Amino acid sequence: MLFRLVLAAFCILPAAAQIVLSGRVVDQNDAPIAGARITVRRDPNPPIEATSSPAGAFRVTLPAPGEYHFTVDRAGYFELKNRLLDVAAGHDVTLVLNAQQEAFQSVTVGENPTPVDPEQTQREQRLSGTEVNDVPYSGSHSLRSGMALIPGVIRDPAGALHFHGGSESQTQYTLNGFDISDPIDNTFSTLLAVEGIRSLDLYSSRESPQYGRGSSGNLQIHTDTGSDEFHYTATDFIPGVDNRGGLRIGDWNPRAGFSGPIVRGRAWFSDSFDGEYNSGYVSGLPKGQNTNQYWLAGNLIHTQINLAPSDILYADVLTNFDHQAHYGLGPLDPVITTSGVSDNEELFALKESHAWFAGALLEIGGAWQRVYHRRVPEGTAGYLITPNGRQGNFYVDSTQTGTRGQFFANYYPRGFRFFGRHQLQFGTDLQRPDYTADVNRSSFQVIGLDGAPQLITAFQGSGNFRRPNFAEAVYANDHWQVAERLTVDAGLRQDWDELVRHYALSPRIGVSYSPFGGVRTKLVAGFDVLHDATSLAEFSRPLDQRAVTTPYAAGVPQAPLVTTFSAGRDLRLPAYQVFSAGAEHEFARRIAARLDWMRKNSNNGFVYAPPGPLQYGYGGDYTLTNQRITRYHEVAVTVRQSFADQYGWLASYTHSGAISNAVFDPNPDQPLRVVNDAGPLMWDVPNRLLAWGYFPLHRPNWAISALADYRTGFPFSVTTAAGVIPNIDNARFPSNFDLNIAIERRFVFRGYRFALRLGCNNVTAHANPTAVNAVEGSPQFLQFFGNEGRHLVIRIRLFGRAGRH
User: Fold this and answer.
1) I want to staple 737 with a disulfide (CB 3.0 to 4.6 A). Which of 291, 306, 493, 766 is the partner?
2) Mean pLDDT score of the chain, rounded to an integer?
3) Residue 321: which residues within 8 A CB-CB, separation 6 or more?
């Protein structure tokens, strides 16, 4: 009996010596960091791993008190590596990660995190603010242009963004958690300084049900937060010179950032300003009539106030203004056909986050947004659409105002164990967009090859209208770590929209599996049902003016045809079924490769359809229906590496296809008639090769950056002189290729830190046209315009006083 008691005591002692360690992972301003991987080691024991909750909390069971090495990594933060801590029973630890930022010199401020996250089931594509600043893409002053550095994201000749096969309005854009899509048409029109961006995070498949107003994904824009040290930067603060078409002040893109403490240790601010003056030079037009001068300015103030160690208040104030003198200027659109355009935007947002040390988190936020668009034509002369381009004055004079009030709440209860580890999430999202317009149209004519009118379109009715809406959503998600190497995300979202008065359910599931142990390899797969936000611009079409078209035959006017639009009945929110799978692997030196496959189908998209087949033209009654069918597939291979502070590279190849039975979007301003509307979408790009990098040179403080971007040309439609499109998008632009190279030198001058960059864009002088004459029979038929040309780029940046980091 005594032997059994002694044996039992020895068996119990090791278990009794175990301790449960609780802790939190936070950034330098005490904000919780979710999804950080914590690895605890003490030889000869095997490592113990944990993941921080949305509140930054984690718990690990250690064999005994004593000294342990802690390693913590999270994308977007420098790795905390092998930090030695003395752990005692009953003690808690707080681990601090510093956000990644630009390093002026080769000062090692931290390691880059491991690129493969075994618990991440979503397809996440991250672009850091440092990469946006370092890579020499065309229009490198523009955050909008920088988004095309993400594989699967392209810009068309008009500048519209397309994420993984969708239109610009099919992606939801958020700024620090708040929806900043244009309340009128859901596009992205916000101006933000690239220097103030911490990261761009794109989630395009296996999305959390928290995100749901965009079938092409959710783009999260995160901005910098100040610290206890004052920092400032200034870029391109000296205007350049342009000799294209004569010597004059060149494009000027002044930007500045300033951040620091409001109250040290308690409150911080970050202010970023973006300005631009652009001559808008267009090749192929006469001197003096070949520039679209425009200016714009935007400012964002972001603040963080720690009301208590677990209670944080965030505030954002955004203002944007811009004006273009000759909007629409192009090789086929001379100055007389253009319009003056003015836009502005305001956003006021507040968010409060309360975290409990045990692991629960509640965040609530509210915002108000306003956009204003004004368009004024050059005059009142008749607008002519001819085989050789446009003539006369544009016919639309419009004022548009959109507002959005929004509120959201997200709650993460404390994690629990039940056949694995669970982290639940619940939330709601309420939005109240409103659209007011005053649109006045004159008329336009379509001119044939013989110079005679083919048709004349005038407009009836008032273009003064208002269209409000209300949308709400609730969701739930379970992040379930079934086993050490297997994670499942399963969730459900419910959307309701006042414009369709229909409840839509969106089930989501994503699986991540590490087959070989460790974190070097993972396989992912999932299925989503996604919905787009309704467009107030689209649903307002029946309230707009009516087009009355008079066709001509042999110079004789025929009976007028009236084009009307009407609201549909029994509409549903379009549903997109997304199937996806992929694999990720980390090689030596933290080189990560990933393979992604995605197929996206929708059978009930919105389209204004005629009573019969989907053939569009002037005249007739078009009713909003769910008859639109779209198909998108994608296979992408991406390899990237980050090393030595801010250096790194990426190479990717994407093969994709985007088709629809309703490519053409009928509207009151459309002068064309489409016979066959099934074909590739206007942003379909079957093949794209993208590579970019930023590398140190052998001499200190010197670096070289490069970008190579090749893609298939965009499709376009050949049109008859009578304005008929027999087959939609039946031709293509030539392939597009950009090669940009820049060398940068960082130095100290008179006690201030500078970086001077000299680069060349389009080194190979590839044509890269942006316009084409697609009218059959025209002397310029299939002639391409808009040659980009080779050009030098100079950039100078100020980083503040020397000696400060």
Assistant:
1) 766
2) 88
3) 296, 297, 298, 342, 343, 344
CATH 2.60.40.10 domain extents, the chain: 16-97
The distance of Cα 598 from the centroid of its chain, to the nearest Å, equals 18
Q: In sequence order, what are the beta bridge partners of 397?
A: 440
For 398, counting Cβ atoms within 10 Å of its Cβ (0-12 exposed, 13-18 middle, 19+ buried), the class is middle
The residue ranges of DSSP E strands in 356-452, in sequence order, are: 361-377, 383-386, 389-391, 396-412, 416-417, 421-441, 443-447
- DSSP conformation letters of 171-187: SEEEETTEE-S-TTT--
747 contacts: CB under 8 Å, gap ≥ 6: 701, 753, 754, 755, 756
Q: Which residue has the tokens 């956009």?
A: 371
How many angstroms separate the first and last alpha carbons of the chain? 69
- Residues 6+ positions from 362 with CB-CB distance below 8 Å: 353, 354, 409, 410, 411, 412
Q: What class does CATH assign to 124-801? A: mainly beta
Residue 614 has pLDDT above 80, yes or no: no
Strands 731-732 and 471-483: unpaired
181-232 pLDDT per residue, tens: 999 999 998 999 988 898 999 999 999 999 989 999 999 999 988 889 898 8
Distance CA 267, CA 285 (A): 53
Lowest mean pLDDT among 2-6, 124-128, 247-251, 402-406: 2-6
Contacts of 15 (CB under 8 A, 6+ apart): none
Q: What are the start and end residues of each CATH 2.40.170.20 domain in the chain? A: 124-801
pLDDT at 129: 86
Question: Greatest CA span in the chain, whole angstroms?
Answer: 118
Helix (H) or strand (E) holding 11: helix 2-17
User: Cα torsion for 278, 283, 289, 293, to the nearest 10°?
Assistant: -10
Domain 16-97 has CATH 1.10.260.40: no
| Prediction pTM value | 0.91
Give the residue from 596, 506, 739, 507 showing the smallest Cα distance to 125. Answer: 596
DSSP 333: B
Alpha carbon 70 to its chain's center: 35
